[in-house]
Design a protein that fits this description.
Pfam families: HTH_38, MarR_2. This protein is mainly alpha-helical. Helix content is about 65%, strand content about 5%. A hairpin with a 5-residue loop joins strand 2 (about 155) and strand 3. It is globular.
Length: about 240
């Protein structure tokens, strides 16, 4: 399977595949590329409705030029902890962000969340995020506010009184529980419509079925989250 940057010809094939309604996996198979490469390429260049090969190629060239300008002459990529490959880490970071974008998060919000996830400490300051993502402080502030509002991160002060943004082990548990509460509210609201619309009428039956289904899903989420919570606290194995 080839690696390296996509060529203009490959981008043209991606554009044709998207226009034909092909799945990303099928486009990737025809190019002998990972599906994540095609997904990331389309999502960062206009999405399925706006992807154009020529614009994607120019955008890539512009990003490459901008990175070269930003890097001091003779500088090298910062060393990665644990002997990680910097290019592999950067590619994974972008792939992870693309998945979160597809799930509904705004682009910068997804990038901030991924940066926190892949930091071994699980915590970064605003200035560290600005430096890492090469964006303005305002962009970080907006993304952080959204993540905090969704309960995906929290703020704390370190010993130097700097504000840090943190993803901790229980974030996903709390997120699942919040989702369950929201789902339970939906079920309750659906059931209220049964009496309003008249029990045993088609509309009331539909709402009652929705309520029962959503109740079951909500209760299942709570049970599963409680049973699996310890997984989030699993520590890496110590090597001798």
């Amino acid at each position: 399977m080839p690696g390296g940057r996509l060529t203009p010809q490959e981008r043209q094939q991606i554009a044709l595949g998207v226009a034909d309604g092909l799945a990303y996996a099928e486009i990737a198979r025809r190019l002998d590329r990972p599906t994540s490469t095609v997904t990331r390429e389309v999502m960062r260049n206009g999405g399925p409705a706006g992807y154009r090969a020529d614009l994607a190629q120019r955008a890539t060239e512009h990003r490459t030029h901008r990175r070269k300008q930003a890097a001091p002459r003779g500088s090298q990529a910062p060393a990665q902890a644990h002997g990680r490959d910097p290019e592999a880490v950067a590619e994974y970071e972008e792939t992870f962000a693309t998945v979160l974008i597809q799930s509904g998060l705004p682009k910068m919000t997804a990038k901030v969340l991924v940066a926190l996830y892949i930091a071994d400490s699980g915590t970064l300051t605003a200035s560290e995020l600005v430096q890492r993502l090469q964006v303005s402080p305002g962009s970080i502030s907006k993304a952080v506010a959204l993540l905090e509002g969704q309960g995906l991160i929290r703020r704390e002060r370190d010993e130097r009184r700097r504000e840090r943004y943190v993803v901790d082990d229980d974030v996903w548990y709390e997120s699942m529980m919040a989702s369950a509460r929201s789902t339970a509210l939906l079920a309750e609201t659906a059931r209220k419509g049964v009496n309003v619309l008249g029990r045993n009428t088609p509309a009331a039956t539909r709402l009652e079925n929705i309520g029962r289904f959503v109740d079951f899903v909500s209760e299942s989420i709570v049970r599963a989250a409680d049973q699996a919570r310890e997984i989030l606290h699993t520590k890496p194995e110590q090597t001798p």
